[in-house]
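User: Structure please.
Assistant: Input sequence and predicted structure:
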Amino acid sequence: MENNWVAAVQLRQNVSHWRTLFYLEQLILKHDAAAHCIRITQMANGIDFFFADKTHAVKFVKFIAKVTPMRCRHDQQLVSNPDNFKFTFSVEISPVCREDLICLPPSLGNIGPLVICTQVTNTIALLEPHTLRHCFWDSRQYWSSSFKSLLSSRQLVDYLILDVKRVSCEVDIRGSKYALYDACVTRVSDFGKKYRIFNTRTHLGHLLSRGDHALGYEVHGTNNCIELKNCLFPEVVLIKKSYEEKRQKKSGKPRSWKLKSLEMEVDDSAKGKDDEERSAEYEQFLRDLEENREMRTNVSLYRNKEYQPSEIAEGDDVPYIALEELLDD
């Protein structure tokens, strides 16, 4: 089966992590989008899907376009006569990911320059965290501007919430709730030492209380965005509430749920590369599903037979997925 494919779809994303590809894998499984795939190979920088029929590859590319901003280049190669071709679809996924901090150029409208990517479907949702102004960019709009992320998930810093004060009431933006609060925070790594206090305005005020932890970005040390040099900007931008300290108490205990995976080979170029980082990112992906109900509505979650209900501590404030949401394996 090594060479009997007719069309290949190469999924690539120019980022340093696999969070988007983990999510795409679950969308593909839920919609059975790779049903006609004869081989799947994990590469060092993405995933290759092979098909025995060009029309199946085209259908697969159309599916990817429905669930994420992407662009595609189509090539063909004559492999034998008469007119026997192999087709390659090179799919580039937008490098902008959920929870990225973005510095928009002024030409892109009345928002920013600092915005957070709050969701990626076939559109990119952007939110200005200190005003709640927002916008949505479809694939065509994104690729015509191709803005890039200033900071991404691997650069998140753990902060301790020292105080919060409400600025505005809770609002709903396409099903996601936000509320503006002023917050005083300090780095968890500095607490107990000679620590520095940062004052910031956050869209997460309705979720945060004194003593909570939150993950965010340090903007004051960032100097690679020219738009920030000519405007006032917060020193810290909070991205999400963190449950890490509370999760550690449950470390090693099985979840009530599990995911299925695509059956794929691992190319030699991908073997042994960043395995620990990828495992940590997959664990973070599982936590994202637990914390984000909207995100997991697009994913099929299955009951874990090894799970014992008594292992959930009531009132421990750690997000978990109710048994009623799970499918039988």
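DSSP finds six helices and 20 strands in the chain.
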